[in-house]
Write a structure and sequence with these properties.
- The chain has 244 residues and is of the alpha/beta class.
- It has two domains: 184 residues, 2-enoyl-CoA Hydratase, Chain A, domain 1, CATH 3.90.226.10; 50 residues, Lyase 2-enoyl-coa Hydratase, Chain  A, domain 2.
- Helices cover 49% and strands 14% of the residues.
- The chain contains ten helices and nine strands.
- A five-stranded parallel β-sheet has the order 1-2-4-6-9, with helices on both faces. The protein has a four-stranded mixed β-sheet with strand order 3-5-7-8.
- The longest helix is centred in the first third of the chain and has 20 residues.
- The chain is globular, with a radius of gyration of 19 Å.
- The two termini are 17 Å apart.
- Pfam families: ECH_1 (PF00378).
- May play a role in fatty acid biosynthesis and insulin sensitivity.
- Keywords: Fatty acid metabolism, Lipid metabolism, Mitochondrion, Transit peptide.
- GO terms for molecular function: hydro-lyase activity.
Length: 244
């Protein structure tokens, strides 16, 4: 499924309505057997500029502000809770909560001209919520330099530090994203769902706990039909026939 941020006139800002639409699109028919991967892209030269600052301009509207940040956190965490991989396809600038969105996706394929920044500090609104995703994707000192200075990372710097998965020429962005998507579609949906959920569950644990969790999941994996089918197909030197 393709989800396209399509308000380029406002630099695809994550207004409350945009966040609500994004949440609905992520959840739409999520249990369908035909849904295998979600790709998030954007129209225009800016992938996403972050929150709509006009919505945050009044110091009195605490209820609205709380609603904006609450649903934003829901969207970012939802991406990692979905049973299918989510790919950010980025061709341009991603700042603040837009950078947070890229960091929250499972995979990020970006064009060479893309840049990533958390410039909130420059306008008096420190990027504390983007820092959650940033600090879990980047080395701490790289994340903090971005947060303290607001200076952008180039696409290559973002790749070097682990914020994105792959950097390609702009004219190859669609091709490379679809190549990864098609490869994902060759695998069992149920096995990928189990693997994604387990990855995010274990990554925050200490080493012993992580191995305890994943050891049990490996055993559980072998009880699934697709787990046995994949092994039998490998032994018999044939393509597996997945259950979906």
């Amino acid at each position: 499924r393709n989800i396209i941020l399509s308000n380029p006139r406002k630099r695809n800002a994550l207004s409350l309505s945009m966040l609500q639409s994004l949440k609905e699109d992520l959840l739409h028919d999520v249990k369908s057997k035909d849904l295998r991967v979600i790709i998030i892209s954007a129209e225009g030269p800016v992938f996403c500029s972050g929150h709509d600052l006009k919505e945050l301009a009044s110091e009195d509207d605490v209820k609205h502000h709380s609603q904006v940040f609450k649903i934003c956190a829901e969207v970012m965490t939802l991406i990692q809770k979905l049973p299918v991989p989510v790919i950010a396809k980025v061709n341009g600038l991603a700042t603040a909560a837009g950078c947070q969105l890229v960091a929250s996706c499972d995979i990020a394929v970006v064009s060479e001209k893309s840049q990533f920044a958390t410039p909130g500090v420059n306008i008096g609104l420190f990027c504390s919520t983007p820092a959650v995703a940033l600090g879990r994707s980047l080395p701490r000192k790289v994340a903090l330099e971005m947060l303290f200075t607001g200076e952008p990372l180039s696409a290559q710097e973002a790749l070097m530090h682990g914020l994105v998965s792959k950097v390609v020429p702009e004219d190859k962005l669609e091709e490379e994203t679809m190549k990864i998507s098609h490869k994902i579609c060759e695998s069992s949906k149920s096995i990928l769902a189990l693997g994604k959920a387990t990855f995010y569950r274990q990554i925050t644990q200490d080493l012993d706990t992580a191995y305890k969790i994943t050891t049990q999941v490996m055993v559980d994996n072998l009880t699934l039909r697709d787990g046995q089918e994949g092994i039998e197909a490998f032994i018999q030197k044939r393509k597996p026939v997945w259950s979906h």
